[in-house]
Structures are given as C-alpha cells and as structure tokens.
Amino acid sequence: MENKIKNHGMAAVFAALFANLLVAVSKFIGFLLSGSAAMMNEAIHSLVDTANEALLLLGNKRAKRGQSDIHQFGEGRAKYFYSMIVATLLFFGGGVIGVIEAWDKLTHQGHSIENPILIFVILTFGIIIESSSLRVAFREIHELNKQNLPLFQFLRNTKHSEILVIFAEDTSAIIGLLLAVFGTALTFITGNGFYDAFSGLLIGLLLMSVSILLIREFYSLLVGERVSNEDLAVIKAAFERGEVEHIINIRTTHLSADEILVAAKIDIKNSEEAHDFDIVNKIESQIRRGLTGKKCYIYIEIDEWDENYSRR
C-alpha cells in the first residue's frame, strides 16, 4: 500500500510531460508560420511546462534517496523544493517573458498575424492534448482524495505538491489556449492585431498569477505543515486510553506527503508506570495501524503533568 501511494501523482507528471512536449513543438511551428503573439506566448508556456515536469521528476528521484547520516529523516521534502523552483523560476519566468513579448506586439503598430486557420488548428490540437493530460490529473486527484473533499479544498490541503503543480499547469494551459483562440479570432475578424497581442498579455499575466499562488502553497509545505484533521484525530485517539493520565502535548509535521513525524509528551498513571514501555509501544502500534500507507516517525516522552506547562 505504501509504495502505491508514493507513486500517486507521477502518472500525471509523465502524461503532462508528453503532452506539453508535443504541444510546444506544434505551437512554435505555428508561431514561426503566423507571427502570432498569443501563439508565441503559448509556445513559451508549453516549453516552460515541459521543463516543469523534468524538475518534478528530478525532485521525485531525490525524494526517494531515503535516510542518510546527514538527512536522517530522508529527503522527502525535495519534492517541495523542486516544486518551489518550478513555481518561482519557470512559471513566473514564463509569465514575464510572455508579458514582455505581448507588450512589444501591443506597441508595434504594424503587428499582424498570418495563416489564422493554421493557428486555430494548432490551438485546437493543444486543447485536446492538454484536456487529456488534465483528465489524468483528475484521476490522480480522485485516488488521493480519500475524504471526498471539494476539489479546491483538497488542492489547498494536499501534501502532494506534484499533483498541485500539474493541475495548475494543465488548467492554466487550457485557459491560455482559449484566450489565444479568442484573440486570434478577433484579430482575424477585425484585422486589428491588438486583440492577438492583448490575449498574449493576458496569458502572461495568468502564468504570473498561478506562480504566486503556488509559491504561497509550497512555502508552507517546505517550512512544514501538520497532519490533516483526520490524521490528527487518529493520532489523538491512540493516546486516549485508561493508562494515560494526561496528554501534555502532541506535535506533528509532514516530512513528505507520505511521511509523518509525531512527537508527544504524556503523563502515565502512577499505577501504570511499571508498564510504560508497553503502553508506548501500544500507542505507536495503534497510530501506525490507523495511518495506513504512511511512514510514521514517533517519539513519545513520559513526563509529570504540570498545569502551568507551556505548550509553545
């Protein structure tokens, strides 16, 4: 079960890599034959997305390195680090480049597009491919969303950074393609290149907005987030037993999407102190049974209850 869960999200990454590489080539050909600013921005977008997947695959490889003398809890957060690079350097960089290119077209009075039919064909092809990639992402989300949360709540709470990147990437790609279709159509109908350039500007701004949202999420994951409410309830339930007088403190953090660190301090009844090791082992066993598919590092300290104890 654990290995199966650890592979979640990667099918979406491979699907997106193939889709974006294929679409990027077609868009660059379309730009060279038409001169469309929106097509240029879309080509940059797809090239950026292809690099995204390469970085996510590298992050996944680093995350599987396991424990070492230096990284004693493994390198699971490597995925979050590489996801942050994707959001910062590639998403935002692609957005900035797109805005600069579109602005140049907006201020260039003679801007026009050629071969509009070819552009529509390539954009339609891109929408079909990106939609196929997004369907894979939705399938991965369905498998990961065990609590059947609403989509955006799941994306907000998930610790699987790769699925968040792919969903944001595929969604923004489809929106960008639709904007490009809209801009190209208006330019073709009116003969005014402003609409093509303006749609390119909107695509660049879209990428920059997505970047900011992802950076915010990955910062939180990289710094360290506690477990979900459902998992926390499972952990607390393991401590609620007759032998435990007081639960002094419980702290949790995700070391990766599937690895959890649990640190707790408890006060055992005086009559049970002779069996403290057995009690701790039972608590740990119950937590691991309740958190099926997750690797848990559990550290429990036995102490005396003090009502003035600071939990900070």
Description of the structure:
- InterPro entries: Cation_efflux, Cation_efflux_TM, Cation_efflux_TMD_sf, SLC30A9.
- This is Cation diffusion facilitator family transporter.
- This protein has 312 residues and is mainly alpha-helical.
- It has 2 domains: 2-223, Alpha-lytic protease prodomain-like; 229-302, Cation efflux protein, cytoplasmic domain (Alpha-Beta Plaits, 2-Layer Sandwich).
- 67% of the residues lie in helices and 10% in strands.
- The chain is built from 10 helices and 3 strands.
- It has helices at 2-6, 10-34, 37-63, 78-106, 116-144, 151-157, 161-190, 194-223, 229-239, 276-290, and strands spanning 244-256, 259-268, 295-302.
- The protein has a 3-stranded mixed sheet.
- Helix 10 links the parallel strand 2 (259-268) and strand 3.
- The longest helix is centred in the middle third of the chain and has 30 residues, at 161-190.
Q: What is the number of helices? A: 10
Unreliable runs: 1-5
Give the DSSP E fraction (strand runs of 2 or more residues).
5-15%
Helix content: 55-70%
Average pLDDT for all residues:
85
GO molecular function: monoatomic cation transmembrane transporter activity
GO cellular component, one term: membrane
Transmembrane segments: 12-33, 80-103, 115-138, 163-189, 195-215
Pfam families: Cation_efflux
